[in-house]
Amino acid sequence: MKCSLILTAIMICLNSISISAQLTLKQAAENKNKYIGTILNINFFNGENGTNETAYRTIANKEFNAFVAENNFKSGFLLRGNNQTTSNDLLNLTIADINTSNLNKLMDWGTANNSIVRGHVLIWHSGLPTWFEAIASNWNDAEIRQFSAKYIELVMSYCRDYPGGNVDEWDVINEIISDNNPANYRQTYSNNGQNVDVWFKNVAISAGGQGYQSFIDFCFTTAKAIDPIPKLYYNDYNIEVYNRNQNSKNGFLRNMVKGMVERGIPIDGVGLQGHFVSGTMSQTQVDKVSLTMDYIIGLKEGMQSLITELDLRICGNESNLSTQAQEYERILEMALSKKNSPGLVFWGFTDKYSWIPQFFDGCDDALLFNRNFSEKPSYAGVLNGINKVTTPTAQSPFNNSPFIINNNDTTVIPFTEFDNGGSGIAYFDDTKGQETNGTFRANENVDIAGSIVGFTEAGEWMEYTINVINAGVYDLTLNTTSEFAGKANFSINGNNISGTINTPNTGSFSTNYTNTTIPIPLEAGEQILRFTVEQGPINLQNISFNFNNTLAIVDLEPELEEQLELKLYPIPFKESFVITLETFKEAKLFKIFDLSGKMVYTQKHDGENIAEINPIGLQSGIYILSVDYKNEETGIFKILKN
Ligand code: XIL
């Protein structure tokens, strides 16, 4: 920058002013590469609906860089026929049935303000046109899907193709988990005190009872096919606070999303609504929300976790504005310091237009500005929270270089030497603090005691960066103790490479460390190995790798390998070879033929996940192996005997 001497003096002066000047929320967030969002009621602008809220507009523009429609993207506002007793043909919707001007307004605003736009919501049991349920509740599974697919297609493709505008994130499904205990997919909801069936309830009986799951998968897959660019979210409330109990709403959410990820359903993130009660969001409670976000982020590379509808209502005398400000500060700092949490969205900014008083008796004052659009203490709390945001540490090997695995040494990885990067990135431990005697890596939330990791529970995992020099099959040995029989597995990039490993009950948690060895195939190169406990508790000492000279990896028919998760090694083989097969129970028979087509060997499977095939007396040469699967010849492989 060039300036004259006099100007320089002024510049210095100006600079010091601008340094001490308070940042707006979006400026503070931009400094951290995050966005900060709010619902926006465009109808309050320009005198529409009798309002002309200049202050509303000014604050929205000044403080926020992400926007979501409070109601205008909901089907009640998009499906024409609103307030009528009849509708157009819902099963054969066209774009003429969609009130697209409601979509335009938010996208235009987003473009004009260079902001993120959230699309809320495509499929929901609520926010419907008044006449909708009477029609839709009679639909069968096929009709529900037909409507849903068409609705998703029309709304998403309109936004995708809208000139100059777009939607960055879609809530594909909102609130499909019930509040019951045990939680389940939602079948009813309360409407004016009445329990009403959700309009898509009839999917429940389809797909052999898996109807809800398959309907959810279907909606996400449909959405992805319409527009592959926006992030696709599942959004819900009362899922924020971590709860180990699988029957809790949080537990149900975790299992539901994990299942979707494992089935390869294109879900990019989970929206945690965050309608909290002020006075309840202690640091301990916020840490539990943090754990849920870590769990979600840990599900797959790039998986996002986002607080989508934050407000902190004050009910009765349970809290006050300064407590609320502290709570906001905690939540903002925590949420925006997460990897893959791209921003945070508030459910409004002024108490003048908050849904709270209407929906929660005796509660109010949930937001950042009062009814006259003046900043409340909560505003400063939010700003402080954003300013305290730290960038998460990228994952890296504990000793700065990966564990080297090769074909002539034994590599030993102490379980305690999991990667750097922290919770949700390098490990997930949701029962932290059970081992109290450790000082090693004491700032990590993993139960480390001396040289072991203890109190491991189902679902907990740790990652280790390895560098495999020689591809091949390695004998992997786990060194563990437990007073229970345990189960665990190893995966790379979400692919389970070990199957379930059974670890023994050694009669004690502290002595009798015992080895369990299984063969695992490893490809060459640097990669991240994830160890996951399937059934605990197990106390873990170390993992060692020894190259198995007799085994080598073979490329199989990719189709069958995928279908059955089948691995076969070594090829060429000497005496015997091994097949591992995830869905092994279904396999019936292995047959080996010579090249003239003569069967030279058969072996029945014995029901285990790993079978050793031992075709005694074969000459060296090429043979054909077939795997009979459910009584059909499914797999044919070429094998070579040395
Ligand atoms: C609320 C709106 O704020 C109200 O104006 C409307 O009457 C009902 O819906 N979770 C959600 C939001 O996903 O869509 C809800 O918004 C609040 C709870």
Give a verbal description of the structure.
The chain is an alpha/beta fold. Helix content is 25%, strand content 28%. The strands form seven sheets. The protein has an eight-stranded parallel barrel with strand order 1-2-3-4-7-8-10-11, surrounded by six helices. Strands 13, 15, 18, 20, 21, 22 and 24 form a seven-stranded mixed β-sheet that branches. The chain is globular, with a radius of gyration of 29 Å. It binds (3S,4R)-3-hydroxy-2-oxopiperidin-4-yl beta-D-xylopyranoside. (3S,4R)-3-hydroxy-2-oxopiperidin-4-yl beta-D-xylopyranoside binds next to loops. (3S,4R)-3-hydroxy-2-oxopiperidin-4-yl beta-D-xylopyranoside (XIL) binds next to loops.
Brief write-up:
The chain is 25% helix and 28% strand.
Helices and strands, with pairings:
Elements: H1 5-20, H2 25-31, E1 35-40, H3 54-63, E2 66-69, H4 75-78, H5 101-112, E3 116-123, H6 132-136, H7 141-161, E4 169-174, E5 188-191, E6 194-197, H8 211-226, E7 231-236, H9 249-262, E8 269-272, E9 275-277, H10 283-297, E10 304-315, H11 321-336, E11 343-346, H12 356-359, E12 363-364, H13 377-387, E13 403-405, E14 411-414, E15 427-428, E16 448-449, E17 452-453, E18 461-468, E19 472-481, E20 486-492, E21 495-496, E22 501-503, E23 514-522, E24 525-535, E25 539-547, H14 558-564, E26 566-569, E27 577-581, E28 587-593, E29 599-604, E30 610-613, E31 621-629, E32 632-641
Parallel strand pairs: 1-2, 1-11, 2-3, 3-4, 4-7, 7-8, 8-10, 9-10, 10-11, 13-18
Antiparallel strand pairs: 5-6, 10-12, 14-25, 15-18, 16-17, 18-24, 19-23, 19-25, 20-21, 20-22, 20-24, 26-27, 27-30, 28-29, 28-31, 31-32
Helix pairs in contact: 7-8, 10-11, 11-13
The structure holds (3S,4R)-3-hydroxy-2-oxopiperidin-4-yl beta-D-xylopyranoside.
